[in-house]
């Protein structure tokens, strides 16, 4: 992958964070994280082993570097099939458990074709976890705990997101994810 293409993918990801995650208030906590503390990593792996190696390396870096609040690993070569990508996500989540890092980190999957359990593929609420590229977000468990403790009604966030996303049709959100 060319350096120009890598820069484009990371720039597109940052734009998605700024305009969708923060701009649409999908995650009310994201706006409080300085941009320089969000680590974006491009992983061009196309195998499970490569994904697990990069994930382990990122966890090790996060354990020793508190200047990085959160990491998002972007997988431009991952399958566009959401179910196949979930295999990668579940393998990373199992590794997190196996290496006893669950108390430090949690993972969130994002994918261009993300569909919640029991949801229709066309439900705009799926855009909560849809992204321009397949990616896994690594959050610090202590930061999540602080955010939860400081929020008056955590249960309202997903409800608000679903209602907000359903106010516009799928084409609107699809346009926000597009590369144009």
Give a quick summary of the entry.
The protein is 46% helix and 12% strand. It has helices at residues 3-22, 48-64, 82-98, 141-149, 156-166, 170-177; strands at residues 38-42, 70-74, 105-110, 135-140.
β-strand percent reads: 5-15%
Q: Give the beta-strand count.
A: 4
Structural classification: alpha+beta
> How much helicity do the residues have?
40-55%
Radius of gyration of CA atoms, rounded to a whole number? 16 Å
Q: What do the pLDDT scores average to?
A: 93
Number of domains: 1
Poorly predicted runs of 5 or more residues:
none
Largest sheet: 4 strands, mixed
Order of helices and strands: HEHEHEEHHH
Side-by-side strand order of the widest sheet: 1-2-4-3
The 3D shape can be described as globular
Terminus-to-terminus distance: 20 Å
Number of helices: 6
Topology:
Blueprint: H1 3-22, E1 38-42, H2 48-64, E2 70-74, H3 82-98, E3 105-110, E4 135-140, H4 141-149, H5 156-166, H6 170-177
Parallel strand pairs: 1-2
Antiparallel strand pairs: 2-4, 3-4
Helix pairs in contact: 2-3
Q: What can you tell me about this protein's structure?
A:
The chain is an alpha+beta fold. It has one domain. It has 6 helices and 4 strands; from the N terminus they run αβαβαββααα. It has a 4-stranded mixed sheet with strand order 1-2-4-3, sandwiched between helices. The two termini are 20 Å apart. The mean pLDDT is 93.
């Amino acid at each position: 992958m060319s350096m120009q293409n890598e820069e484009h993918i990371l720039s597109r990801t940052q734009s998605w964070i700024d305009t969708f995650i923060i701009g649409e208030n999908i995650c009310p906590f994201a706006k409080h994280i300085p941009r320089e503390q969000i680590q974006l990593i491009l992983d061009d792996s196309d195998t499970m082993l490569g994904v697990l190696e990069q994930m382990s390396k990122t966890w090790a870096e996060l354990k020793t570097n508190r200047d990085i609040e959160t990491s998002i690993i972007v997988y431009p070569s991952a399958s566009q099939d959401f179910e196949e990508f979930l295999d990668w996500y579940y393998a990373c989540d199992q590794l997190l458990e196996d290496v006893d890092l669950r108390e430090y980190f949690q993972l969130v999957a994002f994918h261009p074709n993300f569909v919640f359990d029991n949801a229709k593929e066309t439900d705009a609420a799926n855009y909560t976890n849809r992204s321009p590229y397949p990616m896994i977000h690594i959050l610090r468990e202590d930061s999540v705990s602080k955010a939860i403790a400081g929020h008056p009604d955590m249960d309202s966030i997903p409800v608000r997101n679903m209602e907000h996303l359903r106010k516009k049709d799928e084409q609107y959100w699809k346009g926000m994810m597009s590369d144009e």
